[in-house]
Amino acid sequence: MKTKVAAFLLLLGPQLVLGRPAAAETAEGHRPADSPHARLTAKAKALVGVRYVLKVATSGAERELDGETTCLLIDEDGLLLCSNTEMGGYVQLLTQMMNRGPMPAVISTPKEIRVLLGNDSKGISARIIARDSDRDLAWLRLDTVPEGLVLEPADLENQREAQLGEPLYRLRRLDRFFGSVPIVESGVVGALADHPRKLLVASDLDGGYLGMPIYGGDGKLLGLTVVQMPGEEGGEADFGHGLPGQASKFEDMVGNLILPASELLKATKLALEIHKQDLEEAAAAAAAKPE
Q1: What confidence tens digit (pLDDT) does each residue in 160-198 have?
Q2: Which of 236, 234, 259, 228 is nearest to 85 (CA)?
Q3: pTM, whole model, 2 decimals?
Q4: How far is residue 53's CA from residue 113's CA, in Å, rounded to a whole number?
Q5: Where are the domains of the chain?
Q6: Pick the residue with more confidence: 142 or 3?
Q7: H or E stretch covering 72
Q8: CA dist., res. 130 & res. 138, Å (int)
Q9: How high is the pLDDT of residue 161?
Q10: What pLDDT digit, counting tens, does each position of 249-266 carry?
Q11: Closest Cα to residue 138, out of 115, 120, 117, 161?
Q12: Collapsed DSSP state (helix, strand, coil) of residue 192
């Protein structure tokens, strides 16, 4: 996300200074085969690279930015769950953060989406089928699944509720410079929030990696890392500093927030239902047109 933010600031101007970058935490020493780290690394095939071109239009000017992120494969037919922020939603995030007066309308549209599976550098074409900006989720669908390709998705049903104070583990991939190898980072469930919705808050875990799955030590899915921003009900966003010794409000909103796995499952089912309805309505409208 940090590279996307830097590129977007070139378009809108240097009106914002971001916080410190997140640091990677690596495990030291040998890990037994049945450890959480070994168990979760085996799930890494569900983490796939996604590249796209983001068309950004503002004040009559247009620019195209290259985007790249990691999404979670969640079914064998090529459905992926991503961070909406990472799929171009960061434009809305930055617009809110720079809202210090009248701002030009900004429209961002991802296109030319390619999903990279295994060592494939060309990728398979995909499209966005649904977004939920409130929950910071976006769903992609592969246009085709090549014959003979066996996908290894994460199982959203294999989940449970997190307990306050228990260890948690984030699974992600390092940058392509390091071969995109999977890494497991550990933290603790530091808080359980109920507003603006049910959320887990991680402690001892660096923020900044959105759309990454969070697991318990038993391998059960606990949630997905997300951004939570004030919406219409939340009023005007305030990104100022908190009290002395406290994190800034910005850090709370984009730091270590995790949308629980139960919410992921409900949101995914609803997104698929709405997408199905959209397809049926489009087909009916096409059939009703005179030849």
Answers
A1: 999 999 999 999 999 888 989 999 999 999 999 998 899
A2: 228
A3: 0.80
A4: 7
A5: 2-13+35-280
A6: 142
A7: strand 61-73
A8: 6
A9: 97
A10: 555 655 689 999 999 999
A11: 115
A12: strand
Percent of the chain with pLDDT over 90: 54
Kindly tell me the sign of the dihedral angle through the C-alpha atoms of 273, 278, 280, 281: positive
Q: Residue 145 in 3-state DSSP?
A: coil
CB neighbour list of residue 83: distance below 8 Å, 6 or more residues apart: 69, 71, 89, 136, 137, 138, 210, 211, 224, 225, 226, 227
What is the biggest distance separating any 2 CA atoms in the chain, rounded to whole angstroms?
Answer: 70
Beta strands in 86-220 (DSSP E): 106-116, 124-132, 137-142, 167-173, 182-193, 199-203, 213-215
Q: What is the CATH number of domain 2-13+35-280?
A: 2.40.10.120
Give residue-wise pLDDT tens across range 279-288. Answer: 999 999 888 8
Q: Round to whole Å and give the CA distance between 273 and 251.
A: 34
Tell me what the pLDDT averaged over the chain comes to: 82
Helix (H) or strand (E) holding 269: helix 261-288
Please tell me the distance from the alpha carbon of residue 223 to that of residue 259, in angstroms, as a whole number. 5
Q: Which residues contact 88 (CB under 8 A, 6 or more apart)?
A: 52, 54, 67, 108, 109, 110
Q: Which residue has the tokens 């875990």?
A: 205
